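Q: What does the assembly look like in three dimensions?
Context provided by user:
Components: two
Sequences:
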Amino acid sequence: MRLSILIPSVWVFLLHFVVSVYQDQVGVLDWHKTLIGKSKLMLDDKLRNDIMFSVSENNVLAAINITNSKLVWRQVGQPGEKIFDLKQFNDKIFTVSGDSSQYFRMWDKDTGLLSWEYVNPKPSFKAGGAFLEYDETNLLAAVGTSVFRFEAASGKLLWSRDLSKYTADFGRVISFKDKVYALGNLEGSKKGIRVAVLKLADGSLVKEYNSGPGQSLDSDNFVILHSELLNPYILWRDQGNIVWFVHKLGITNPEFVTSHAKLFQLELMPPAMLTSIIVPIYIKGSNPMIALLYSNFGKGKAVIASLSENNFEPEFTKIIDFEHSLPNYGRSTMFVSQKGIVSSLSITKKNYFKFKAIDIPNWGKILYSGFAKFPSTFGPGRAQSIFTNLNATNFVVQSNDGQLYGYSPSEGQKIVEVSDSLSPVWSRDESLASTVDSVFVHYTPAKQTTEGNIIQRSSEFPWIANWILRIHDHSLSLYKFITSKFFVLFDNDPKKNTTPGSSSSNLFSTMVVFINKFGRVSAYDSNTGNQLWGVQLKHESDDSPRVIKRPWLKLQKIYSSQEHNSHSPTIVISGLDGEMKTVFTTIDALSGTIVPNLTKNLDTRVNKIIETDMVDQETLQKVYILLSLNKGNITAMCWPPNPVLSSASSDVYFNIGNKPGSQALQGYKATLSRSIPTDPDQTSSQSSSQTQSVSIDINKVWEFNLSSENLQLLTSSSLKPNMRVSSIGRILSNRKVLYRYLNPNMMSILASSKDSRQGLKLFIIDRVSGRILYSAEHKNAYVGDIEAKKPLVVMYENWAVYYFSSQNPSLPQTSTDDEATPSDTAVSHPGYTIISLELFESDVPDSISSKKTFSSYDVEKPYVLTQSYLIPNALSSLGVTRTFNSISMPNLILALRNSPLSLVPFSEVDPRRSNPSLDKSLESSYLKPYEPSIEISANEMISYSLSIKGVNTLKSTFTSLESTTLILATGLDVFCSQESPSGKFDELTPSFSKWNLSLTIFLLLVASIVVAPFAKKKVLSDLWN
Amino acid sequence: MNRYLNYSSLTPQKLSEKIPDPSGFRQKRSASSKSSSNAATQENESYLRSKKAWDVAFGPAKSLPMQVIMCWMSGSKVAIFSLLMTGMVLLSPIKALFSFSDAFKHLEPSDSDLQEDSGSTSPRVDLTPQKLAFICFNLAGVLFGLYRLTIMGLLPTTSSDWLSYASPKLFSEYSSP
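A: Here is the predicted structure of the complete assembly.
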């Protein structure tokens, strides 16, 4: 009988240690958002009324169905590439783009497939322009210092002219009759427009000269007016000047000086003249036109005029004037379709806007006009741009943070006066494409399932409390199960699913909070991808009379500032206001509301934020050290202001200069001391928070000067403090242990020569002492300005993996350890290479330091093993998976270009994979023999057949399940996935039945109790016999 | 009336008294018989006891080569047969050591046999060397079993076996990236 009680007791006791959930309770496997980003150029399809082509700030060329917001196709530029211009040629779209090369591409407008491409291997990062000749046969393009003429249908290069001897960056080109006019921005101190006149037939230079002094091609006060009917002109107004200059291209002199009255037949006050801007209008078959956007007694107005020549002098004729946005809102408030329909956006206060479509070729007929309230589907924002389709039956309003709203005001060509506020028919949220930073926030949800409770409590309560609560939860669950089974006999509703584990629950309780460059903060459920809340952080209120281009905070960094087991997690965001002073904003992560007493404008610009391991005892917020750097002086302050610290004094080491382009790294020590002021006036009744103050003492510890070798930092990766490590050693084939060099203060930096495009150096530095623990050089690595080939590095536990591309035949990698002799004989292969290295305490197995405490000032140097591998494609980002206790094997997350996101176990790139050069005593039997190339299997491709483009950041965080990690990819698209790098060892398969198990144990228990007297009787009888 | 039958007439002692020994047969039960060659018989019996005890002592040693061969045949990988074999190799000598007293009990004269007043002629036999040999051979078997466990990697004798219990170091400095 004792056993029959003991066994169930042990079983019940062991329940405490078992935390497992069903596979379908873990949530959806992944979610993603296919984005294009905020549009900077839009072009309506002149052959279809429902399609518009967009070039976004993320350099995505896309075709959008304007009637339903669906993405028809998209083409994502290479990292660093900029699309400068697009033109439509029949059923094709022509683009001019550039990075370290110049690209001229023709795309099929219906499918997005490439028809032809021409690449000029010259860099172009600033401007470019395309021009379809009036006969629509050939294309002209100007980019960088070159002008090109292509046969549009075939892509055949007719001629190209290099104008490199002129110090100008050409970005516009037009032709008229037998001449080509290329216009560029003058480079150097002399600002202005450079004009080159070429012969259309062969591109030979006719003349070149400067014009438009002080102007640039993108200026709001500069336009090029052209049409097939008239010689092209340029027109501009100097900053602070009220007169306009008109210049006929090709003629060195004269420049006509004119006024508003002559241009647009209207009289303006000088302030209105000074703030006005102009918009060029080209309508096929008409004379060049120009629109003037100006302010008339505080109201925005627009006037359109046509250019003609009278006695070889330019003459402007007013066509129409109408209400429009104030000129401060920019040119994007006006859009001209290829058919000549002008759409006007009139932005008013309180989130209303008026819209109007004017058919210019049809004598300025107004197709429709009306007003709409700017929707707040995704949070507050304001209308910024308007685009229309060919016949202007639909229009799209883009907000300042990249959201697109589609409207359908009219059917056909009816004139419509929209009297009621018009509602959008669709919207596209593109704000995540402009993500600046993101953070995972672990929280306790309000509504939980039994399993969710268990997982959350396990980290909060002692085991006995967990056990009692668990019994309670399971009893409740049993009751619910029985009642549901009972009632299901009378209720045959098939929609009700009472299968255990079938309910979707939010077990991971993790949200992802994004900040974007438009001041938007948005939180998404990491399980489902649903938006939880959104906040727009502004430094200018909506009621402000001023119209400024950036009313939002320029957000920089986001941190999770309260521990995950708290019921009220908070996030803190740093941003810059209009005067570039730092504003710290604290937001309640559950509700998305701003915490007013923890939100403050600091009246200074913070250059660096140091996250500490201290907690303010009063607000329970993490303590941050905010650094302002001013000409070598460092000013430090604490956030939250004046925190209450638990310890009297704490040291925090940090670095300055670990940003790309830096040539010097410095290490500092910040000492936070709690001091009690001795002010006699303070009464004893004051709280401790009021009587305490924290002083910060900053001392420079070390400096590493890269400039002595003419190096500059490319990228860096640091270990996170307080890292958890599951094992302190690696087990070898002979069952000895190679102890890992676990130093949480390590930092890897990649540096290259400032003057050369080849040669890469890796340094592993101790952030506290500044000691160089390891260094290596790769002379064949490419480190040029091609964004797609930039080196990457990631560091985790005691290992680092870095990536670079190499073009030349392999050169030996050399260790430049300053004390040890070169020991590395590995060769970095040409191609896309990743090098893995692992640091150990010693090269002798079973040799471990006897010290219980690690200090960065210990003189022991690590033993480094390194190996190189080839990967099949270029990497755009590199990350590593993280689990709570690091029990699961860490995996590299690879964002390979033109390939799905992939996971590669560290064992695949382990430097101890057996090879002839490796000491046999260091081999591990569980590692495969060395192969130079890494093959990625289909199972390792976590984004499978999804088209995830433009990934530049990969993050990972732990979940409540040790086996499972959350992976987040951002850049252009957003992809979030749950992965189990070492298998789902703590998840139950659907075939596992808790009820069957419980029933079996119960029956066994009953059986043991029933048969116990019989067994006893038998034993007694045997003894008697 | 006595309900029990008396079979005492059928006991060997009684039969032997009635039936003559065959020619050349030497009376073994000297203790019970009152033969004239009592001293010689005692010497012979102690020799026999000693010899039998050596047989018992060498028993584990004789089986050890066979066990070695069988273990070698089963391999050193952790598999069902090699585990069974190793278990047998290890448990047999341990069992024998635990039943050490039983192994030699029947070879030692009982206390009643040694009582002079009962007229016993059983000699005192010193089986200590045999017992020591028995222990040594069984210990050799245990050692071989342990060796098998070692080469199979089942004994926590290396540093890797205790790695998960090793506590990580504390860090004296805190740095923020």
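Follow-up: Residues 370 and 648 of chain A are 65 Å apart (CA to CA).
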